[in-house]
Amino acid sequence: MKTAIVIGAGIGGLAIALRLKKQDYHVIVIEKNDYAGGKLHAIDQDGYRFDLGPSLFTLPHLIDDLLQLFPEHENLFSYRSKQIACHYFWEDGTVFKASTDSQEFVGTAAAIFNENEKTLYSYLQKSKKKYNLTKSLFLEKSLHKASTYLSMDTVKALINTPFLGISNTLDQENRVFKNPKLTQLFNRYATYNGSSPYQTPGIMSMIPHLELGLGTYYPHGGMHSISQSLFEMGEKVGIEFRFRESVTHINHLDNQVTGITTDRATYEADLVVSNMDIYPTYRNLMKDIKAPEKTLQQERSSSALIFYWGIDRVFSELDLHNILFSEDYHTEFEHIFELKTLSKDPTVYINITSKESQEDAPAGHENWFVMINAPGDYGQDWEQIVQEAKQDIIKKVEKCLGVNISNHIKTEYILTPQGIEANTSSYRGALYGAASNDKFAAFLRHPNFNKRVKNLYHVGGSVHPGGGIPLCLLSAQITSDLISKANS
Is 2 helix (H, G, I), strand (E, B) or coil? Predict the structure, then answer.
């Protein structure tokens, strides 16, 4: 039996491990932490449970597909759909509950924002069309293989290039709306890949279809249950997990991978898949291989500053997902990407899983995951930034909800870009690898295979097709297909 080694037990590493096991490899996963899941982790503190990483669950069939690779083993993973994708708040008292039912979304949005229903319907239909035209090319295949460009799906995408909005920014695409609040609402989807709506191409207007068209979901047990379900399935099918062990070198001979060396031992393997961020993969594990400098020097995506607050009361006006918008969105992104700091008026995202799982907080309490978009770690004074940001967040909550939330915080845990990098080896704490602030960004991401070392592959948010749970899972699917074809 051939042996495959996977470096890192993040969501991409878990997914590729299961797919390689299905291809009859003996799979060994090496993970420096003492847990599986990477960013999809959780903590319990003072009676509150907090998901530490991604909070939005879309395209659940990607998880189902993985678990159903082994139908002979019991699978307890389950989820339910959300009728309301997100609650939106502005300081002037405007509140909008975004339904995942398109008819209800359009009717409510038209009334609240005084927008033409036809404009809204047209936008949602274009978002759907863009997604359907490009998913096969950009999300399901390697952009670095010639065979990808010989398919009819690619021909259709190329024919429709003007329609896709590649030459515009997302903000320009979204100025079809009269009300700037609606433009701001759809601009926020740039943050789903850690980019700026004023720089990322208009093709990103397909992202709303993921949430509003295909639906948002809540996994029973919280987001942490996603990674744990994959890990538990991995154990059931005989994948070997080695925790608290750090890979120090990817070994190769005559431009072909031979295995890895860790701080404990050397392992031989027929192929190696790195789920580690591509930057430290080259800088730390492949110092003897010429690095693709242009790729490594790409602008990094945004990071996050997250406060986990145990709140001693219930807010009926809030739901699972909530956004409290900045009054000056452009300045907010200018601070993040150009000044590498935070504006005094940040957009605040609040995720409350106790709305769905009451056991996540004591009775009459809520567990708040409070996040603002942030630059990566470039040596800033994060202690000072955290202190100032907390006060700015408290002001935003008070302006939008009319409550001084500081009086209700009973416990607190803080995660900075520095902490994200320390926990997950994500360079500069970037949540999505490289930013997509360029119309060619998709083509500049590192491929899922290594051009210099045979039988070395890459998965995860820093390589094609990008960051976030769905794209990391798709990176594993693409990589698995490449490995299968190479062996056929």
Answer: coil
